[in-house]
Amino acid sequence: MYKRNLMPFLVNLSKDWICAVMIISTSLSGYAQGDLLIFPKRIVFDGNHQKVKKVYVTNNGIETTTYKISYIELDMDKEGKLVELDTIYANQNIASKKLRIYPRHITLLPGESQVVKVQLINERNIAEGEYRSHLYFRSVPNPKNPEERGSGKASDDNISIKLNYVYGISIANIIRVGNPNIQVNIESFKVENIKEQYISVSMSLERNGNFSSYGNIEFEYISPNGKIIHLKTIKGFAVYAPGNLRQAHFGLNTLDGLDLNNGKIRATYKEEGNERIYAQETLNL
After folding, report:
1. Strand 264-271 relative to strand 213-222: parallel, antiparallel, unpaired?
2. What is the pLDDT of residue 141?
3. pTM for the whole thing?
4. Local structure of 146: helix, strand or coil
5. How far apart are CA 69 and CA 138, in angstroms?
6. How far apart are CA 53 and CA 6, in angstroms?
7. Shortest CA distance to 169 belongs to which of 134, 143, 140?
8. Domain 182-284: homologous superfamily in CATH
9. How many helices (DSSP H) and strands (DSSP E) are in the chain?
């Protein structure tokens, strides 16, 4: 999941005004941020000869908005945060050079949707491996009346502030060439806290192989007599290459009557779209 920290950028600084632009980026499971909705949450070119993918963009707001579409390069740290890269490392396979997006600007009325196409190009010249970039949708400020920016009055003791919110969403674009070879191990699986019908756990996921892992983590409680009760499913959990370690904490709400001092918690990490199990580990309570 990509969540860009809230950051103020001060522009047009003067005695009377400070115009601040705040950029917020996040990726969700039916990705929505502000008034922007994007589906799907990620696209993958995996050798099935489909050269064009479609992304559906919807303006859920009440104002007409223009969006600029481009690529950014992100790396995942061990805590799962996606950080924009200032330098591209040798082992960071970039997908953006092999993809074409169109259109690059769209203007949507309230409630209007549009398809953005992503095309794979020069696919015959792509070496085996996985390539990743993030398609970034950013709203473009469109003040109703530009003259309003200078209409405020401020004394020497006061400062007027005008805030323009610029929202953005990024979704992973991945190219996979070759046969997948992915191994994931769940390590350091332990209880962090137990309180009434709430339990928190932590774990480390170690990934090896030529591709990233992406899927769902299912948590189950196994009673002393073997009864299995579903606790929670974490959807869209990734360990993106070239990184090979992700540390995570999860809060699990449980049902009344479960004895959290006995039994087991089982974590199963499954690949999205099928029943392939990346890793499974059991924790004794």
Report:
1. antiparallel
2. 80
3. 0.78
4. helix
5. 7
6. 30
7. 134
8. Immunoglobulins (2.60.40.10)
9. 0, 21
Residue spans of the chain under pLDDT 50: 1-29, 145, 147-155
DSSP string, 203-269: EEEEEEESS-EEEEEEEEEE-TT--EEEEEEEEEEEE-TT--EEEEEEEEE--TT--TTSSEEEEEE
Question: What is the spatial distance between Cα 199 and Cα 281, in angstroms, rounded to a whole number?
Answer: 17
Residue 203 has a CB neighbour count (10 Å cut-off) of 20
44 and 51 Cβ atoms separated by less than 8 Å: no
Name, in order, each residue with C-beta under 8 angstroms of 172's C-beta and a sequence gap of 6 or more: 2, 27, 42, 43, 132, 133, 134, 135, 238, 240
Is 3-177's fold the same as 182-284's?
Answer: yes
Instruction: Quote the CA–CA distance of 19 and 160 in Å, as a whole number.
Output: 9
User: CATH assignment of 3-177?
Assistant: 2.60.40.10
The pLDDT of residue 203 is 98
Task: Find where tokens 């993918």 sit.
Answer: 53
pLDDT on residue 32: 53
Residue 165, helix vs strand vs coil: strand
155 Cβ contact list (under 8 Å, min separation 6)? none
Structural tokens at position 245: 């370690």
| In the chain, domain spans | 3-177, 182-284
The contacts of residue 262 (CB under 8 Å, 6+ apart) are 223, 224, 285
Rounded to the nearest 10°, the torsion over CA 67, 68, 69, 74 is -110
| Backbone angle region of 99, left / alpha / beta, with phi > 0 → left and psi within -120 to 50 → alpha | beta
Q: How far apart are CA 240 and CA 98, in angstroms?
A: 19
Compute the distance between CA of residue 135 and CA of residue 100 in angstroms, rounded to an integer.
Answer: 11
Enter the DSSP assignment of 148.
G
Q: Which residues lie below 8 Å from residue 4, measured CB to CB, with a gap of 6+? A: 23, 24, 25, 26, 84, 168, 170
